Amino acid sequence: MEAVEYRSVIKFLYLKGQNSTEIDQEMVQVYAEKCPNYSMVTHWVRKFKSGFLSVVDEHHEGRPSSEVTEKNVSTVETLIMQDRRITVKQLAFKTKISIGSVETILHDHLNLNKVSARWLPRLMTTDQKQERVNCCKHLLRQEANDALFFRRIVTMDETWIYQFDPEPKSASMQWRRPSSPPPKKAKVTQSSGKVMLSCFWDCDGIIMTNYMEKGKTVTGEYYSGLQKRLRSELARNRREKLRSGVLLLHDNAPAHRARQTVETAERCGFKILPYPPYSPELALSDFCLKKSIKGRRFEDITDAITAVEAWFQAQSDTFYSQGLLKRPFWPRGKVLGGSGSINGMAVVRGFKHDYDRWAKYTGDNTWDYAHVLNYFKKIEDMRIPELRDSKHHAKGGPLRVEYQSSSPLSYKMVEASEAMGYPASNDYNTGSTQGGIFRTQNNRADGKRLSASKAYIYPAMSRPNLHVAVNAHVQKVVIKDKQAVGVEIIKDGRKRVIGSKKEVILSAGSIGSAHILLLSGVGPQKQLKNLNIPVVANLPVGENLQDHIFFDMVASIEEPLSWRFSDYFTWWTMLRYQLFGTGIFNTPYVLENLGFKCIEPEALKKQWPDLELHILNLVLQSAVTRGFKLSEEMIAELSYRDASEYGFTCMPSLLRPESRGNITLVSTDPFDYPRISANYLDRQHDLDILVKGVDECKRLMTSKPMQAIGAKFLDTVPLKACKHHQFDSREYWACAIRQRALTIYHPVGTCKMGPQGDSTAVVDSKLRVQGVSGLRVVDASIMPWITSGNTHVPSIMIGEKAADMILGRPAPKPLEF
Questions:
Q1: Domains in the chain: how many in total?
Q2: Is 725 a catalytic residue?
Q3: Which of 335, 358, 502, 639 could be stapled to 367 by a disulfide with Cβ–Cβ 3.0 to 4.6 Å?
Q4: How far apart are the C-alpha atoms of 345 and 451, rounded to whole Å?
Q5: In this predicted model, what pLDDT tens digit does every residue of 457-489 receive, in sequence order?
Q6: Together in a domain, 92 and 197
Q7: Looking at the structure, do residues 390 and 412 belong to the same domain, yes or no?
């Protein structure tokens, strides 16, 4: 009877003229914890508005206990035969059975899967195929005899940019059995509004773009003019390429074969490479570009051109040199505890000036180091004997901090630190440091990972006010009248809405939180409108993306003091860990030492390191690099490392990058990954710091303690892509870093915290989303600037501080340190 009572109250207040929000507020005052959720209130208000004034549910016949009957199987099959593009939802509606039952019928009884149409390419003749083989062999011979062949190439491609494409290929998906051929589909007619893009690019990026004026056609004269412009651009930005000789690669379109084109190329000093016959429908030169604008509707051609140029600018230099194989690999932890459940477990708070900068920028001094130190200490249960009683640390918190099982080499690293001139110190988590090499502090318990879920969620699982939904995918935050009232999720194949009486707290990480907000209508207005998402708040969600990147360098040693790669695969290693909790499995990613260095004068003055050394006491062999998604060619180039048994890997890491990336939506489908443009090394400053980091690793390898154990730098074989530079020169290492720099998986900043009214900020200093009531973001995405070190513990600190803000507790007093 409670339900009828609630509905009667809702009806009474509705007839008095109150809206859903006002009704909900009054009912919360009366019923408190027993109050129905906001979704129920809005549901019944809508029913009353539609003219249905009864407070009793309408009578329904209900569904049979088992919907998977022969009759329903036959009905579903008949509907599919009539329309192979019919959706699961449409089938459920027409048959009046559940979505789950429809899916069971489709997959288990009819053995059907929905597959996309396949384009039909134009077939090549036998002569064309042979000509293609001969041409490719000729180009391969040129590459083998010319060390600069790859770098000399300038590629030109022409493609139409459309104002909109009315039907993406995915719309052609049909239900088919595995034995059936996929459906065929003619290409759809695109919009009449279009412009021809001519793009010239090389392994270092875009050189020049040109959009053909309306009414013109691509002729020999037009293309000759583009070649002259290209030479001018090369003279300004690629002088070295002009000196070594430009190899121009374009297809066999008539304008490209015209006499005027060939003569202009000769005058410009370009050599035109032979282009093999191909099927135009399979040309992939513009594949990534087209995917980025596929399905988007632009107001006009100028808007489309702006989107294309933005995409070009968002790609890092390495995107052009190594293509899709070099796209950043960003795994995220879709598990309780988030990415902290798959990380390296290093405890690094960052430094005083990281947080003081946040406080100054936001105008909220409770974010300075003296204040947030309270939370770092609250988190911590320090188990390292020499640090337990330090004023910088604390005991009894949920996250245990201890040393790992260490190889003898980890102690030699500390000796090397002093030999390199760094002051003796055993603690980098003091708020400041001049630098040095330290043993790594880890958050773990008795040799096992101690994630945030184990530390915080599992101990609270029995609480009556905590409900954890696993295998649930958040689609969006439900926002009504600028008020967050719940979240929409997909669980067990069904869409559900979970209502909120007070606040929605979004803690999906720097990728997930930005993705969810964008899908919820909170983000850049132009981006949302292009995808027909109603704009709730025009905020720079997804901008300000920052990440730490590193470059790996390997040294071998003569003494058996490090771990070996083969140690991972012995029975003794497994037995040792199971029985005693020791050995290489007790050493997270063999990250036994961390080093810090102040490179720039300002950093040294403030004792605020801008370079970190991640030191793995093991030779990073070529097979391991496959996990970082390096190309097979690059892995093969590093195979010389595999001959060394003992050694270490020094990874200089950029702590405060100036480059900024962004996250944008690919589509409105919540299961589509967002587009991530990291823009690594977009600023020269970032490259300069890493090059100096290479020098610091070499200084470590040549220190007296390392030389005493026979340390020898192994990476003396020049990379093929950089062999045009003198080995060991600054230019060589800059090239090598561009080729092989990798993420440390520390993305932050996409929901930037800032002062009220700051147009670059998404949340205020209380982590409330600007312009939306009842919604906060609590994770690393709120960082205005990335912290100078691993980001796991700072993220937990943000969570602890947010808990106090949500509960309305006053900020703790600043601590001395």
A1: 5
A2: no
A3: 358
A4: 8
A5: 989 888 998 999 888 899 999 999 999 999 999
A6: no
A7: no
